[in-house]
């Protein structure tokens, strides 16, 4: 292990990733210890949130890269079952922010919600290290610990995911032009953690032991929790409870705050049962999605016309999420298995390819942020819905190009298996990443920029709910591919499905781009003012919605 002359791609990549993490940690320590409230033009709190989220993503993506392979190779599930479990898990990760966002808006505040979520996540990732005896899901009772670990991670994400993004926005005024770059910095922290989590934790999990990989993910989450606790003073009071006195009131002899944490632990029990019956998750998503939409519309009709129109625009954005993420999340499910079996990897571990997307984002994120601002200053920046339509088109093209490459350039290996050149996997991730950069941070921006103040976390949670639908769709489509030979997907079946997905996405993306001027009118961007928040700071990313106004006082 320590003889560098024997190292392969994995050892070198993990070493480089560890060195990169070290450089960023040193840079972060330098930033937060500088005199003054700002460093490099941004509040110190941004850098603290950067590192807290970086470690959370280290743990999440380290585990995500392993999960489908772990289900198939260790727990001995079929491809179809593994994809459905993966889809149910990732969808629930994105649906629980509805509860976490609502509790933060009404009672806990974002900071306490993030803190509680981080505790649950740390426990969940450490429980993942209990891998049992390897005899398969039908024989090993340790499977119940695995379900508990997933439940803790799901509920923990619900409290942390939407709310930490909200805190970032609270550090800036609503029309502050620095906010695009702030969210780009934050987004790069997400992807730095994701890339390093794959290259370090997932690599060791795949090549040494599952327990080591998942255990390192737990260490990463613990570090994120420590960073968030130590960095509390840098938030300058942002994200605190809107009703601190009420949290101290007793309900049935228990402080309301502790009672709310009890609700969170009860949620773990519910999810522990639910995650074992993945086929029910789709129906629950549909029913709860309709209920959430009804609640959002109910709240919208209490608002004035412009605010109500903005809610309609946000609903349009949310409805695009299931399609995009249903395609994008094939990367962690069916495409992970396809890569393992049908791609000429040249000796590179399968999990490593999960790091391509976050690495591309780190490289391309600043370019896109600069591009939007350059276009904005010249009055040619696309609107939010136009950018999102463009993102969906690119996601579709990722599949189209990959399938074309697999059909036109595949070769046969020594065992007689048809293998796709790895180049087309890199092209797939490039197009899906540029699509993500046109859609995800832009949609995140629109949610909080356009939200009424009392609906900020709710709308952010609704945005993640749309993503949840996409994740379930991803798993469900992957499970259909797994209905091939002996419950495992075939190469031809997967390529046929990918081709259809790609063509549908390109068509939908074009329609969205055509409809974008009508949606932009609903946003009423020209009348947004800082005083819309009654004196509070903005609750999310701002400027990707189509214009970049200079910071100005409310009229």
From TrEMBL:
GO cellular-component term (any): plasma membrane
Example GO BP: oligopeptide transport
Ranges of residues in domain Major facilitator superfamily (MFS) profile: 15-520
Domain of life: Bacteria
Transmembrane intervals: 12-33, 45-63, 83-104, 113-130, 145-172, 184-204, 210-235, 256-275, 281-298, 310-328, 359-376, 388-406, 418-444, 456-477, 497-519
InterPro entries linked to this entry: Dipep/tripep_permease, MFS_dom, MFS_trans_sf, MFS_Transporters, POT_fam, PTR2_symporter_CS
Keywords: Cell membrane, Membrane, Peptide transport, Protein transport, Transmembrane, Transmembrane helix, Transport
Pfam families for the chain: PTR2
Record localization: Cell membrane
Membrane topology, record value: Multi-pass membrane protein
Keyword Transmembrane in record: yes
Major location (coarse): membrane
Gene Ontology MF terms in the entry: peptide transmembrane transporter activity
NCBIfam families named among the record's database cross-references: yjdL_sub1_fam
Protein name (Swiss-Prot/TrEMBL): Proton-dependent oligopeptide transporter, POT family
Organism whose genome encodes this protein: Erythrobacter sanguineus
